[in-house]
Design a protein that fits this description.
By secondary structure, the chain is mainly α. It contains 7 helices and no strands. The relative contact order is 0.11.
Length: about 110
């Protein structure tokens, strides 16, 4: 099994952006330089296992996801898409969506 470091960097950058974090915030939280985070995301550097684990911890993802794109929760991408769409909604729409979700859960549809 071969690791595609370009895809790994893209997954890290994508997850960081989903969490609305900057490279600087990740670098501060991990103790790594901002330049090193950028190099990992752009596949100019291959992270050590220790570095990979620090980044995964801050991004709340598993190494399986970062290295291979494998998620334990196959719905993670769908949840991410829903979260992004929710950010575009105002209070009235959010209340309506909340009521709809509550209805679905309560009715066990």
């Amino acid at each position: 099994m071969e690791i595609n470091y370009r895809e790994m960097g893209r997954r890290i950058a994508k997850r960081r952006k989903i969490l609305n974090l900057t490279q600087e915030e990740i670098s501060e939280a991990t103790g790594l330089s901002n330049n090193h985070i950028s190099n990992i995301e752009n596949s100019h550097s291959i992270p050590s296992i220790e570095t990979l684990m620090k980044v995964c911890e801050q991004l709340d993802v598993t190494p399986d996801y970062v290295l291979l794109g494998i998620t334990k929760d196959s719905n993670e991408e769908l949840v991410s898409q829903i979260n992004q769409k929710l950010k575009l909604c105002g209070e009235k729409k959010l209340k309506l969506i909340n009521n709809f979700i509550t209805y679905i859960i309560d009715e066990d549809i």
